[in-house]
Amino acid sequence: MQYNGIKAQYPGEGRRKWCLRVLYESWPTITSEVQPPDFGTSIVPDDPDPQDGLLEDEELGLIIRTDFTNDTAWSNFYNKVLETQKELVSDLKAGASGSADDSVDTKADVAMNDVSQTTDDNSKSGSDCESAPDIVKFLYPQDPETRQQLTNLSNLKALRLYNDVGIRTAPTRPEGTKPISPSNPLIDQNGWQEIYSGKNIWIYDSRSNTDECVRVVAQKSDFYGTATGDSWRARGTYVCELQFSMAYQGMNISFNGMDGWDHAERSRNLREALEL
Questions:
Q1: What mean pLDDT comes out for the span 238-264?
Q2: pTM for this structure?
């Protein structure tokens, strides 16, 4: 079924979900040089999506609060990120930032791709400067219904809500490596892989209340066997520098080719992949 048919069948969902449904209904069934359908703006009308208002600003990343059990811990985390963001933006404006990743500890307790901050009436920006956008945006809703929707949100569901879906050929399998079984679109399904683009996603979860870290969510995998939606944990005070370095300096966390991502979160994503 093509996009317009999906749109008519599910009128209340919005552009991102319609594109996801089109992808799954027309998933390529052969492994070849044939190109998959283009799910970009070339064939998808400029239809509205429920999250467009949240994502329209220029921040690079989005920090999503998904645990609401400890307001004190959240407030401490939020204020620390705001302070580091203010310092980084100030340094950048002064032309004295240098290499933003020089001071970043990229070891195990640091983790995240990019961050942005929002708050509908529930979200807000932390920049004092009208001429420079924030690095990250926070999403921390106050209304009970939205809080319920975000509570314990998985990496994959966050990507599907706040990023745009795409598809690419799966990473090359090393010689002697068998295809994953069972196949999964987040790793390799018929030679193709589900991927995402948009603001980097950083997730504040129940562990964040004590370790002051967030999950850094991958929009695609780095090598065969790893998955779209994989994550690692980054300390909140490093988020803005990490986000800036990833967006503008080509920084990439690769764990030196080792599979250092959170396997529990990966398993959760793989289970949820077909739940549209």
A1: 86
A2: 0.84
